[in-house]
Amino acid sequence: MIRSYYIAAKDLKAEFRTKQMLNSMFIFSLLALVVFSVSFGDFLGDAEKVEKLAPGVLWIAFTFAGMLGLSRTFVMETENGCLEALMLCPVDKGAIYTGKILSNLAIVFLMEAVTLPFFIILFNYNLDIRTLLLLLLILLLGTFGFIAVGTLLSALTLGTRTRELLLPVLLLPVLLPVLIPSVEATAGVLAGNNIVDLFPEIRLLAVYDLVFFVISHLVFEYVVSD
Amino acid sequence: MENAVSIRKLSKVFGKTPVLKALDLDLKKGEFAVIFGPNGAGKTTLLKLISTLIEPTGGSIIVSGFNTTEEPEKARKEIGMLSHDSYLYGDLTAKENLRFFGQMYGIKDKELGERISHFLEDVGLVTKADERVSTFSRGMKQRLSIARALLHRPSILLLDEPYTGLDPGASLVFENILKSPEFQESTKLMVSHDLERGFALCNRVLILNKGRFVYDGFKENLSGFEGFKEECGPMMV
Asked: Which residues span the domain enclosing B119?
């Protein structure tokens, strides 16, 4: 586990120095929110319509902005043969996958933390602490599932010339089981439901996260091997 | 003397193309062997197999007593690899690169700090320690790459065309480190196209052609570099 932490720390150090992923993710997510809020401008006073539209908008912004970051997850490893150097280290390949998940989670959570206040302002929400905490729980579970699969597929598309095109094509269908409950749970939270009402979605997300993390952890070795 | 590397009936097939065919090789501790051969002979594939980067199709490789297929992590701890790729992160500084790889090899913090200073001094990059690797010249990257490969004091050094991109100064630094008492006892296996340099450094010459060793001899049995070229030159075509 400590080696995964070293990999994540290395990735974050390099990312915060260049901010290549962060800048593009922030800009994309904010742009998506602004475009949707402008196009839905007439409905923004109608709470019922906003409740139906806003959760989808939030997850569209997070998913596509996150995908921008995921497509670059292994790019720094391909420069100067660094992925080979990582594979030469006396660590389990699963530790590399876990390290990449940790750094991706940190970066995507940061993007979400910056984007969320804009979402609340642009869509006229007034959230209390309980609702906000519940929303954070849904974001945590949804994002983890997204990153667990996305990191694996990012490694899978590494050797292809059309990596940036191939990743969304492969990722979006696999993500549906996490996106649908995430959007539904977010809608429930924003409508003021409590945690008991959201239990089916939360349970589904938790199971998806666990299953996909374990499977991805196990198959990662074969994905990065020649 | 115990073998540092022991290879038995090693074969590797890519798709339907056999690259290595039932190779046998024993390297004793402290031996410095150099592999020559034409392009596509399987030299780099052999190093990748020993370093556990790829798995063999058949046969076995024992590195310092560890089977590379059964205990790859233990085998990797014994290996230092220097390739024509620098294996360095451009967005990190020289010191940060060495610290990261040292941590990955499980070197304790205090000892790691001492080793980083020692190797940066050896490769002449002390003044560049806190500069980003992306600002380094090719020669400087290769020097740092030498430090990275040796940082965990491997007992087996795999050197894949190490002279690529090295300026004369860096080549000298590299050769001095290899000859230093610190690494005299490590086993070295080098792949090179530079016949003269490779011959000068090694004590055993291997020639790989079309996936098989066509020559395996000790330098002392050859009558100098000219004799080697005369005897082995035709085998490298």
From this structure: 87-153
Structural domain range at position A79? 2-224
Of A29, A30, A28, A37, the closest CA to residue A123 belongs to A37
Tell me the shortest Cα–Cα distance from A103 to chain B, in angstroms: 15
Of residues A7, A18, A81, nearest to B83 (C-beta): A81
Any domain includes B177:
no
The torsion region of residue B120 among left (phi > 0), alpha (psi -120 to 50) and beta comes to alpha
The CA distance from B196 to A113, in Å, is 60
User: Taking CB atoms and an 8 Å limit, are B91 and A18 in contact across chains?
Assistant: yes
Residue % of chain B over a pLDDT of 70: 95
Token duo for residue B161: 């065309």
To the nearest whole angstrom, how far is the Cα of A210 from the nearest Cα of chain B? 26
Q: Each residue of A55-90: pLDDT tens digit?
A: 999 999 999 999 988 888 888 888 888 888 999 999
Nearest to B92 among A10, A85, A225 (CB): A10
Q: How many CB pairs under 8 A join A and B?
A: 75
Q: Are residues B25 and B91 in the same domain?
A: no
Residue B178 within any structural domain of the chain: no
